[in-house]
């Protein structure tokens, strides 16, 4: 039995999906375990309570993470991750706005989150392209 070349194994490896799933499952859990920091960055312009959006985004992160773990649903999970990362971007922008008077290290952390969305979206797109429907 021959094995695939390392380049092909890397392209089809589930490891990137597992890493992204772990991040989403961890972050999604935090929305329920410690919701106040998430409530604080929900844009006030949105209708309804901030807690609703905190819990809804937590559910979305948990569901997306779960989809990424299962080979049969991995492609759907990758697309869901792209949508999720784009959807939460306004909250990240709002965090930068709200934290303009915070200590420099907190402002820098909030600002650093914005460009970090790009590699997360690209990683999710790569998972989508390299996953097979089972």
UniProtKB/TrEMBL annotation:
Q: What biological-process terms (Gene Ontology) are attached?
A: methylamine metabolic process
Localization recorded for this chain is:
Membrane
**CC per GO annotation:** membrane
Primary place of residence? membrane
Bilayer topology reads: Multi-pass membrane protein
Superkingdom: Bacteria
Q: What is this protein called?
A: Membrane protein
